[in-house]
Amino acid sequence: SETPAAGNSTDKGDNNKGKFWSAHIVTLEVQPNRPPTGIRLSANTVPENSPADTLIGRFTTSDPDTHDRFIYGLTSNEGRYFKVVGDELRTTGFSFDFDSRAEHPITVRSVDATGAFVDKNFTIQVKQVQTSPKEIYLTKRTILENSPNGTVVGKFYTDNRKTSTYRYDLTDAAGGRFKLKEDLLVVADGTRLDFE
């Protein structure tokens, strides 16, 4: 805002001697810094077995002072699984495994230019990645001839033993002699099981 003010100016000449002049004084309003109020993370999941330096998400800060700048850091980082690069949350060299641990808590601090800060807790979730099995095994490979229909031959499993995460299909049922029941190989037509 502007406030008018009067001042006395004396001219040494004959004209305008002792004349008053008016001027405007500009008054600036200085507001105190207001601290940041919140932190957001654009994403909070990381695929298991991700390499080091994988980007998880970016931080942004809520602050009443719209032109403020912020520095981010981790105040709680159990296991040192994560790091902050600028406004980015990235992984370190730890190899994440969904089955071992699916969630990792962290605490993030955002500091403005005057040193005011806000903390916020986040939970980073490990996302399970479906991988193709390298090998398929059958627990038993023999069956008596003329075994009745429905007899279990054996159970299929993969090299990582996570049988519940895979679905099996028979590409060759030995002429209709066998069929699948979930991950079990069973006899479909026992009359055709003849050793000779």
Search tags:
rod-shaped; 196 residues; mainly beta; single chain; four-stranded antiparallel β-sheet
Can you offer a commentary on this structure?
- With 196 residues, the chain is an all-beta fold.
- 0% of the residues lie in helices and 42% in strands.
- It is built from no helices and 14 strands.
- The protein has strands at 2-8, 20-26, 38-41, 45-47, 55-62, 71-77, 82-85, 88-91, 103-111, 117-127, 136-138, 152-158, 178-181, 184-187.
- The strands form four sheets. The chain has a four-stranded antiparallel sheet with strand order 3-5-8-7, with no helix packed on it. It has a four-stranded mixed sheet with strand order 4-10-9-6, with no helix packed on it. The protein has a four-stranded antiparallel sheet with strand order 11-12-14-13, with no helix packed on it.
- A hairpin with a 2-residue loop joins strand 13 and strand 14.
Present the secondary structure layout.
Blueprint: E1 2-8, E2 20-26, E3 38-41, E4 45-47, E5 55-62, E6 71-77, E7 82-85, E8 88-91, E9 103-111, E10 117-127, E11 136-138, E12 152-158, E13 178-181, E14 184-187
Parallel strand pairs: 4-10
Antiparallel strand pairs: 1-2, 3-5, 5-8, 6-9, 7-8, 9-10, 11-12, 12-14, 13-14
| Helix-strand category | mainly beta
Helix content: under 10%
Based on DSSP secondary structure assignment, what is the total number of beta strands? 14
* Shape annotation: rod-shaped
Taking pLDDT < 50 over at least 5 consecutive residues as the criterion, the unreliable ranges are 1-7
